[in-house]
Amino acid sequence: MMKALTLMKCERCSVLFLKNEGDQELSFTKSFNLTSSFSHTSSESGSAPLVSNGIMDYVASRGEAVNIPDAYQDPRFDSESDKVLGIRSKSIMCVPIWDNHHEIIAVAQLLNKLDGHPFDEADEQLFKAFAIFCGLGINNTLMYSEITKAMAKQSVALEVVSYHAVVSEEDVESLKASPIPAVEDLDLKAFTFNDFLLNRDEMLTASISMFESMGLVSKFQIDYETLCRLMLTVRKNYRNVAYHNWRHAFNVCQVMHAMLTAGGLAEKMSSMEMLVLLVACLCHDLDHRGTNNAFQQKSQSPLAKLYGTFATMEHHHFNHAVMILNNQSHNIFSNLTNEEYSKVMKMLKHAILSTDLTLHFQIRKEFFSLASSGEFDRNDKKHREMLRGMLMTACDLAAVTKPWEIQKKVAELVTSEFFDQGDKERAELNLEPAALFDRRRKDDLPEMQLGWIDSVCYPLYEALVKVEPRLAPLRDGVSANREKWLKLNEERKSSMSVQSDEDRAMAGSTDSGGEDPSSVTAEYREEEALRRSFDSIEEGPSSPKAPPPTPREVKAVHFQEPLFERRGLTSKRHSITGRPFDRRLKVQTSISERQIIVSRKWRSYEEKGGEGAQS
After folding, report:
1. Are residue 143 and residue 181 in the same domain, yes or no?
2. pTM for the full model?
3. 449 is in an annotated binding site
4. Is the pLDDT score of 112 beyond 50?
5. Domain that holds residue 600
6. Which end of the chain is less enclosed by CB atoms within 10 A, N or C?
7. Per the annotation, does 246 bind a ligand?
8. What average pLDDT does range 2-24 have in this prediction?
């Protein structure tokens, strides 16, 4: 664009890209503008509003170059564009930009020759050549982007294939032959259900039981062997990470089942919606690596390159689910019509992507408003879609609603996985992790849990209760667990307060400026008495009335800090050993000069056999 301004000697150059919408109405998706330094207009260079002056639309639709000497005399020109952009169009030249498939992908436009004359034929030929080079550059950029995506996709696919194995027919036959327990026997309709009571295989039969109890297997004519193979393959495609594993997927599915049955939501949902929601719950974290979306972006992983920055992992989970379901031996939707299948896959994608909290926060305000005002309408298509999204998030976070022992155990698993990510960020990316992922702040867990409950969890379950009062046990479970976390947080703060008081007391006792003069006087007296004892030891005992210090007294001196050091007159290292004094603990880290003197004089006195030597 800079070259075009220079070569064509004009005020402004613009390139607008077209949306790739097939036969739909023509529209532009992005614009780039550059203004000559010799221009008298106030327009800034760079990205600008997507405003077409009518000429661009004409060129994009016809594929013809246009050279207009006076814009305001041409009926195709829309003068409103000048007002929006803050410019004054005079002469205009606009040409289409083609890709390698001879399709128009953009238009380029020049405005106002600097000499005030219109663009001539030579200018037109030169600008058409410029447009060809623009097309080549844009096409190469798009091809590079496609290659990068393809390489990332290949990398992800190879990793997935190398990690996950196809389930064996023996496993399928074994599951087919296994007895399926009734949901009542396992208490699968209960909001307080404890999934830790089941092992990996029992969770498979429990999952099948939920599908059967709701009549979904018969309703959609699902082949039983296909259902068994799907369950086994889904389980196989969860990695062995601390929290986002097969157990978590099963737990999310169980909560959805409880909300639909005991919570009464089955009365508000179609059979197809319920089938999609149960499948989405089981598949919502497929191939989770134990790291979140932010980590994928920070590490520039193949997943981030493939799916971008929006709901990176959630897109991967959905695509992984599609990959499994596309295998005919796993496709439990095979008996649906094409229209039904398309509808199911659209709902499945929305359900899985809804577990991304970024998307949740985008729609929850509107949903909360509908719930609070009583305006939620289950017959409204948009309202139903929002409800399904909220239910997915509610099931994903449902561990916070469970009895305390379950909630506490799950919280430990979650933080373990988060801390592992934080360790990776430090070790591999050289980054300081956020508080939630920082192992060094593990003692802050109660406080962080309170913030999590207050900002995310409780408002969600409170809104769902307004839509369906029979979901109240979930909200009440959150409240009960909040009280537990609050108690732990208060105990932690109390413990920290006691420790702080002790530290302040210790610091105050070592502060020379805060010492009691009477204690200093006593120390002077003690020091003076000790000096006289030293003198008596050196000269020998003069009288039984003035005995030398006992070994216990001398030993006590060995663990006392000299008076001059206690008074803060010096903080230098010891003149003999070169080691520092530890003033905070009031214990000397090495033997002082006077202690050495005491020891030497005491040994000398013992050698003389002085009186009191054996006392």
Report:
1. no
2. 0.61
3. yes
4. yes
5. 520-607
6. C
7. yes
8. 77
